[in-house]
Request: fold
Amino acid sequence: MSRARARARGTLTVIGALLLASALVRLGDGIGQALARATPEPPAAEAAQAGEACPAPEDLRILLDTLQEREARLAGREAALEDRMQALAIANEAAAARLAELAAAEDSLRRTLAIAETAAEDDLAGLTRVYETMKPKDAAALFERMDARFAAGFLARMRPEAGAGIMAGLSPEAAHAISVVLAGRNARTE
Reply:
C-alpha cells in the first residue's frame, strides 16, 4: 500500500513540476513581449536616410562569434559521432560475421569430436573383445605388464567370466593393484 502512495506522490510531484515550468515559460514569454513593446523602434524613414544597417554592439558581435564557433564545433562533433557510429556499425557486422564463423567452427569441432569419441569407443570395444577371446593365461601375461588403471579399464568392460579367468592368471600383486583401481572407481561414483 505504501508503494502505491509513494508512486502517486511521485507522479503528483512530476505533474506539479511540469505545471510550474509551464507557468515560468509563459511568464518569461510575457516579459519578453512587454520589453519588445517598451523599446521604441526608429521610424523607417530615419533608417532609410542613414543608408546603412544599424551596427551591432560589440558585446552582441562577440556573442554572435562565440555562438558561431560553438555551432562549428558542434557540427564537427556531430560529424565525428556519425563517423564513429558508422565505424561501430561496420565493427558490429564484422563481429557478427566472426561469431557466425566461430559458431560454425564449434559445430564442426563438436561433430569431429563425436566421431573421434565413437571411433575411440569402437577401438576400445574391439580390443576388449580381443582380450576376452584370448586364452586367459596369455591375456594375463599382457595384463601383468599393463598399468593397473589401464588394465582395470579393460577388465571393467569384459564379461565377468573372461575377466575372472584373466585375474586368476595374474600375480597376486597385479591382481591386487587392479582390484584397488576397480573398487576406487565404484567408490567415486557414489
